[in-house]
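User: Structure please.
Assistant: Input sequence and predicted structure:
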Amino acid sequence: MNIKHPLRVTSVVGLLSLPLLLSGCSLFGNESASIDPPPSTTEQSMIKAVTGKAPISTGQLRAVFLQDHNGLLAPVSLPIATGDVQADAKSALETLVEGGPYAGLLPEGFKGVLPQGTEVKSVTVDKKNKLAVVEFNKSFGSYKAQEERKLMESLTWTLTDRPDIQSVQIWVDGKKLNEMPVGGTPLDHPLTRAVGINLEVGHGVTPLDSSPVTVYFSSSSPAGVQYYVPVTRLVSPEKDRVQSALHQLIQGPQTQDGLQEVMTGETALKSVERSKDNVITVSLSDDMFAKGEAVPAEFLESVVLTAADNSEDTVKTKIRIELNGEKSVIGQNNQNYGEPVAKPQHINEIPL
């Protein structure tokens, strides 16, 4: 059953001026096994040195946060990882450079947000503190002021997609930045996912008296390929963050930027229950679905993404979904979401 709904629309303004004291979460998706072993880090470096372009890789998938054709950041899984933490972090950042060495690997409708000409001079990972120290050349500062937050979100969420890195420190030409070079956003502390992503303010909410949740809506590429987009929304504080996030998912998108509702107008959240084995059971009701009817995967996976990313332990948490009292909930992708679903490692494997 295919469900299409009109977008809920509201204008969100002034997001660039919001404080960075937010809370963020991790992502999810499916990991594909590589067919052939990827080129070694040395081989890749030699190819880039000669051609200025990265080789087409059959490496492990790595999520990078690119700007889509609607101007939003979305994770895209690319086969660029080799297993070396620092080399993989450097390659991931290079995919974010507009017109950079990985431009030929990006799907239609997606682009990097780092200014053209930006070079990733080095990435050093402090494994004990899970801190990535990144050094760029001076071209890093050639962006426009209104692009500053998006740039910060993109590089931070890209580097912290793996559990090896939780925070990011930015350097330019041998000097640590104490503030961003164009808009002057303070960098007194390393960046974390607390910066949020695609930040927006909930209806009737005052930013200084709010709590952030990250929800996953759906969108489509110019070629019609579906993918998920995380949105950090500032909402009125609630005791249960997972429940709060699911309420926002049901409410749907607020902006006219290509996001699509994944719930129907009849969806209601009945309960959120936790067990000692890190399983969250989300109980929903929706009269649109008959008993035994397969449910759109977008509906179910958005629930898994949103609930897992707002839980206390995004790595160990599993999600179980009940719908209309039924404990067996089969998606149109043939997965049983009535069983605990672990958060896969990657999301949005979009073909070129």
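Residues 297-309 form the longest helix (13 residues).
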